[in-house]
Amino acid sequence: MLFRSGTVTVTGAAPSTGLVVSLSGGTNAQVDKTVTIPSGKTSADFIIKTKAVTVKSSATIKATYGITTATAKLTINP
């Protein structure tokens, strides 16, 4: 298992309670179910656990807050 990092960024500062963003990965890239952007901040980092692959592969990381979803494609090299 290899570890990478990702960042979730929003346009406005998180409220005093923080802002919980749902995350999803895939077979080759696992992420925690959520990441919390701290109060007053606009971003939070999270860990991506990638499986070792024998051929170049890809995974899609998805972040969702309310009705807004953003995706990012991750390339995993052998």
Describe this structure in words.
There is one protein chain. By secondary structure, the protein is mostly beta strands. The protein is built from no helices and 7 strands. The chain has strands spanning 2-9, 19-24, 29-31, 34-37, 43-50, 57-65, 68-76. A 4-stranded antiparallel β-sheet has the order 4-2-6-7, with no helix packed on it. Strands 1-5-3 form a 3-stranded antiparallel β-sheet, with no helix packed on it. It starts with a strand and ends with a strand.
Any idea what the radius of gyration is?
13 Å
Mean pLDDT: 95
**Form type:** elongated
**Major sheet: order of its strands?**
4-2-6-7
Strand content: over 45%
Global structural class: mainly beta
DSSP strand tally? 7
Total helix count?
Answer: 0
Note the run of SSEs as H and E: EEEEEEE
Largest sheet: 4 strands, antiparallel
The percent of residues in helical segments reads: under 10%
Distance between the termini: 12 Å
Oligomer: single chain
